[in-house]
């Protein structure tokens, strides 16, 4: 979990740098954010209903580690958590886009800290997963993903209309 948090904090810093030193220098920053919200929320909605979630699957990192190594030292565990934390998938990219919109670095870090807490909730029931039904957990995740996708789609459309009306 500490590795994931470190990955999130690093991406929060990257998002803030991207937003403040690259995008905000542009005269079209609101347009860029609006279009990115619409595109990424559309991607998230499609992702919600897709059969394959390989993009967010951490299993592809396992080939980098020797399965015969039974010793799990702190550095290896931290690295695996970090790789999980920088796992690029539609919700994470949407969070990156949102954090890039903040004008100060603390807001971006706090946003990703909240993202960390929100996603950490899904790790807590892992020891008890055998008791729970996988289809029920997947349905709840899909519903949350759909609601977030619709929210960001709405936000992007409103932002785009405001940008078009003001110009």
From TrEMBL:
UniProt keywords, alphabetically: Membrane, Transmembrane, Transmembrane helix
Start and end residues of each Urease accessory protein UreH-like transmembrane domain: 2-150
Protein species of origin: Clostridium carboxidivorans P7
Transmembrane residue ranges: 6-23, 30-50, 74-96, 108-128, 140-161
Keyword Transmembrane set for record: yes
Name of this protein: Urease accessory protein UreH-like transmembrane domain-containing protein
InterPro entries: UreH-like_TM_dom (IPR039447)
């Amino acid at each position: 979990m500490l590795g994931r948090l470190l990955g999130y904090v690093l991406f929060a810093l990257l998002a803030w740098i991207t937003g403040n030193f690259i995008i905000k220098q542009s005269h079209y920053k609101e347009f860029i954010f609006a279009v990115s919200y619409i595109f990424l929320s559309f991607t998230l909605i499609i992702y919600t209903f897709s059969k394959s979630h390989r993009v967010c699957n951490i299993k592809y990192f396992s080939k980098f580690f020797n399965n015969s190594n039974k010793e799990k030292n702190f550095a290896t565990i931290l690295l695996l958590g970090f790789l999980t934390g920088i796992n690029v998938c539609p919700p994470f990219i949407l969070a990156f886009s949102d954090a890039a919109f903040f004008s100060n670095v603390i807001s971006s870090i706090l946003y990703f800290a909240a993202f960390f807490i929100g996603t950490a909730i899904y790790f807590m029931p892992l020891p008890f997963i055998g008791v729970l039904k996988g289809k029920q957990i997947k349905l709840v995740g899909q519903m949350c993903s759909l609601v977030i996708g619709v929210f960001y789609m709405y936000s992007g459309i409103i932002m785009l209309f405001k940008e078009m009306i003001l110009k």
